[in-house]
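Lab notebook, bench 4. The sequencing result for the construct came back, and we need a structural model before the next group meeting so we can plan mutations. Quick request posted to the team channel:

Model the 3D structure of this chain.
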Amino acid sequence: PDDYKWYNHDAQKNDVNVYLKWQQRLAKDLIFFADAQFRNTAFFINGFQDHPDLRPAVNYNFFNPKAGLTYFLTNTATEIQKLYASAAVGNREPNSADFAVAPAPAPPPATMLDEELGYEISRRKWSVSANLYYMYYHNQLVQTGQINDVGAYTQTNVAKSYRAGIELQGAVKPVRWLMINAN
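Done. Here's the predicted structure in token form:
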């Protein structure tokens, strides 16, 4: 019915983050970059529809660093070719619905190590790039296929998992006012 309250519990999520970015030219054609993020996420949940007595108060602190290099093979007005590599750590907290499925202890956050290596060439009327990636996960949050009491898919932690692949992109600009992209 139109007047049914699908989301009817008192909850609060605070999310605060601070980050720094640094880029340094190491040589004429070599650039180093580094990012650092500190993130705090806190949940305060005052019961769920099917679990009114469940009242988790959970606080997560994350440090997410990233660093990489870009090397320009060519860098002219008509052509840019570059190679790049990076490594990063990323963390993700569970969502509020995950606390209803696994109320005690609180579900652990997911941590990912991402390594990437790529090549890009850009000219005035076209560009192409290829990016290889490998993402190693610890406690990755994955959907179980189950649906909770409000119709959302539930998640669970998988101790170890990975994703690997290649991303391909291309663009062409046949006239000044039209650009076609594909990935």
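Strands lie at 10-27, 30-46, 57-75, 79-92, 110-123, 126-147, 153-175, 178-182.
Will bring this to the meeting.
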